[in-house]
Amino acid sequence: VVHFRSLEKPKEDDFCLELSKLYTYDDVVERVARHIGLDDPTKIRLTSHNCYSQQPKPQPIKYRGVEHLSDMLVHYNQTSDILYYEVLDIPLPELQCLKTLKVAFHHATKDEVVIHSIRLPKNSTVGDVLDDLRTKVELSHPTAELRLLEVFYHKIYKIFPVNEKIENINDQYWTLRAEEILEEEKNLEPHDRLIHVYHFTRDAAQNHMVQNFGEPFFLVIHEGETLGEVKGRIQKRLQVPDEEFTKWKFAFLSLSRPEYLQDS
């Protein structure tokens, strides 16, 4: 007897089926589909149980990825009697040829972030992801250019080249963020610099360790600009009220040591 649980509710049994351990992969999904009244068994995706963590394994079972039911129930040297199932919107063999990426789109002028799931063939590029995203989001103007960034712990680690293949991009551990490239960034003068701007606090309880928070961004600074001028542009961009902004301090960070800067 195998206890089936919905992957969305992994703590509670949904139904039980009496099955032979010699059933093939196709036999098992066919019985599950019949039980829940689904016409197409290829839309069932199964996930094995981890006997140690008492949770679903992180990776689902691939389409015909195991031969028999007995293979689905083995975890190292233990055998479980639990399987998790989910109903997909397209057949599993088709889905396995696709890659789904979660992309957070940051609007250029509104303070809003919308998460989009982009599903494309695995051999697609970052450029294809951005083209797909353009059809789903509101841009500040129709010809706005987009870029894709990798953000981790409130810092920008990478701008993806548009020709990079998406197959190996990981959206499990870090955030993929799409945004418009501002006009001023496209027309950099020889002595302009594109810098990273991060929000940070210092934790008195932890030896004044620097901790980042909030949304990081890029900013162009021009030769000869003072901090006072740059601050004005940051305040305008983030739309921070004067009263709040007077409490902000600005520092240059090298090796996590802040060097506080004067307006001049």
UniProtKB/TrEMBL annotation:
Record's protein name: ubiquitinyl hydrolase 1
Keyword annotations: Hydrolase, Protease, Thiol protease, Ubl conjugation pathway
Residues annotated as domain Ubiquitin carboxyl-terminal hydrolase 7 ICP0-binding: 2-73
Family, per entry: Belongs to the peptidase C19 family.
Catalyses which reaction(s): Thiol-dependent hydrolysis of ester, thioester, amide, peptide and isopeptide bonds formed by the C-terminal Gly of ubiquitin (a 76-residue protein attached to proteins as an intracellular targeting signal)
Organism, scientific name: Anthurium amnicola
The enzyme's E.C. designation: 3.4.19.12
A Pfam cross-reference name: USP7_C2
Annotated coiled-coil segments of the chain: none
